[in-house]
Structures are given as structure tokens and as C-alpha cells.
Amino acid sequence: MPLYGTLDITQDSKRLPTLPNLDTEAWPLPRAEMMQLLIEVPRSSTDGLLPKAMHPALPSYVILAVTKYSDSPVGPFNLAVLRLGSRAGAHPRGFLLGAVASTDAAALELRARWGIPVEAGEVKFVRRHDRVMGTVKKDGRTILDCALVDPQPVSGSDVQYINWVTAANAPLDGTTQPILIQVDPKYTFHKAERGKAQVATFDPAAWNAPTLELANAIVGTCCTVDTDLPRIRFVMDPLKPVFQGTRRIRESRADE
After folding, report:
1. Per-residue pLDDT reduced to its tens digit, 70-114
2. Which among 71, 87, 93 is positioned nearest to 184, based on CA atoms?
3. Under a CB-based contact definition with an 8 Å cutoff, are residues 64 and 43 in contact?
4. What distances in angstroms separate CA 64 from CA 38, 41, 147, 217, 251, one per listed residue?
5. For 133-250, where are the alpha helices, taking DSSP H only?
6. Where along the chain do its domains lie?
7. What top-level class would CATH report for the domain 9-19+31-255?
8. CA–CA distance from 3 to each of 129, 141, 162, 178 (Å)?
9. DSSP secondary structure of 66-96
10. Which residue in 44, 159, 172, 187 is a FRET match for 194, CA 20 to 30 A apart?
11. Which residues of the chain are modeled with pLDDT < 70?
């Protein structure tokens, strides 16, 4: 029997971001610098974090990503996210647990357009000759201090970025209701590096994952990419398996 998550997002829908509609315009995000760290986590520490419609990844892992967006419709901003490795049917996905943006404008738009559970805070992305560092603070307190150590050049084809899934309230069939939204950015690689993932500070409660425990680092990458935040194409019923509860909102990215 396949394993499913246990989180029922309909029981606490007021905490979720709310979208006015599912017709947001795409954002082009050229020359983004994206550090992504994959960390193994004990399966027991992820209980209750994944919606019922999705499958947990085996072994369990999380994705910590800190990205510097130098050009966006709301100006430059940095974004840090925590995603839980999972699957939607047979497809690997990263379920968004928490996020922090470096500007109020970015946080407001990311919540309202894509349902990303983001708050404003201090997010820094710093590149040194021997490492790339990411730090996040909220209310003056450090909630993440991480790095990619000793980055080495690799091909962009050696790097895999999986699509995101986020939980939000949105109008569907005339009723605003809790749903799962797929966010599927595209990537054109200009530079790719791989190195050792290192996390010095991590406050799980600040990322809406109070039970989460980090274990072994898997791998870290840092890439310069042309990417985007696209129009929403797929939404899912949060309580049904995705093969039963997935709805197509638009046919393809060409509809953008």
C-alpha cells in the first residue's frame, strides 16, 4: 500500500495564504542566484507536515533554498524557503512548509499570487571564494544559517530542481476553499556548482515545522539561472490522491 501524508489542511484553513483568483500573471526572473541544500531528516520528525493527497519521500529529506532575485516585477529581493521532499503520484515534488522574503512587497505578492506561505524578514545571500552563505532572521533572531562549502563547477544538466506544491485558499467552482497549488518554474542554466551542504543554525518552529529535525547533509548546489514564477496550471484536492483530485487550470505554459 502506498504511504500518504496525514495533514488535513482544511482543519486550519485560516492560517493559509488566500488568493483572490487563480489567474495570476507569470513573473520572469532572470539571472537568479539559487543555493539549494538537500538534508536528510528522520521520518518520524515529518509526521503531520505533509497533506493527505501526497506521498512522503523515502528516505525523508528537506530542501533549504536561498535565492537572490536581482530583477523582478517588485524589484530585487532575496527569498529563503523550506520544502519537504514528497511525491504527487509518481512525480517528485517539494511541499512548501515556510518561507521568508527580504521585502514586504515580495512577501505580499508571493502570498497573493501563488499562495506561498511567506513572511517578510531579513534574508542575506553572500558569495565568497570558498563558499556561498545564506542567513535568515525574523524579529532580529537568526532562524537559518547555512552554506554551500567548496563549490565546484558542474554542468547544469547535473542539477535537478523539482516543482513546488503549496497549500492555500483560492476560489474554485465559485467557493474560496483550501487547495494544493503546483508551482512549476522553468530553468535555463548559466552557471552550476556543487559542494558540501552545511547548516549551522536552523529553527524548525520558525519554518512552520516544529517537529522537524535535520540529520545528514546530502548535497548542495548553487546555480545562476533564468527562471520564473509561472501562471498556475494545476491545482489538487488536499484530501484525495492526486490521480483523483488534480484539476488543470490551463492547458500549458504556452497559455502564458
Report:
1. 999 999 999 999 999 999 999 999 999 999 999 999 999 999 999
2. 93
3. no
4. 7, 12, 10, 11, 31
5. 242-245
6. 9-19+31-255
7. mainly beta
8. 43, 36, 20, 22
9. EEEESS-TT-SEEEEEEEEEEEETTEEEEEE
10. 44
11. 1, 252-256
